[in-house]
Amino acid sequence: MIHDIQIRSGVIGGTLLSTALNIGMNDLLFTAIMSVIGAVVSFFVSYILRKLFSDSKASKKKSKNA
Fold first, then answer.
1. Among 11, 18, 24, 66, which one is least packed by beta carbons within 10 Å?
2. Could you give the count of Cα atoms lying within 13 Å of 65 in the half-sphere of its Cβ?
C-alpha cells in the first residue's frame, strides 16, 4: 500500500514538474489575456441579457395592469 502511494506521488510530481518547466512566459501571458477577454465578454453578455429580460418582464407587467 505504501509503495503504491509513493509511485503515485512520484508520477504526479514528475508530471507537474515537467509541465511547469515547459510552460513559457508567452503561454502565461496569452492565458492571462484570454481570461481577461473572456471575463469581460461574459460580463457584458450577462448584463445585456439581464437588461433584455428585465425590460420584457416589466412590459408584461404593465400590459397586465392596464
1. 66
2. 6
Instruction: Give domain status of residue 6, yes or no.
Output: no
What is the count of structural domains for the chain? 1
For the question of whether the overall pTM of this predicted structure is more than 0.70, the answer is no
From residue 4, alpha-carbon distances to 11, 15, 34 in Å are: 11, 17, 39
Q: Within 13 A of 52's CA, how many CA atoms are on the CB side?
A: 6
The answer as to whether 30 is a domain residue is yes
The rounded distance, in Å, linking the Cα atoms of 11 and 61 is 61
- pLDDT values of the chain reduced to their tens digit, one per residue, 66 residues: 567 888 999 999 999 999 888 889 999 999 999 999 999 999 999 999 999 888 766 666 666 665
Identify whether 49 is part of a domain: yes
Which helix H or strand E contains 13, and what residues bound it? helix 2-22
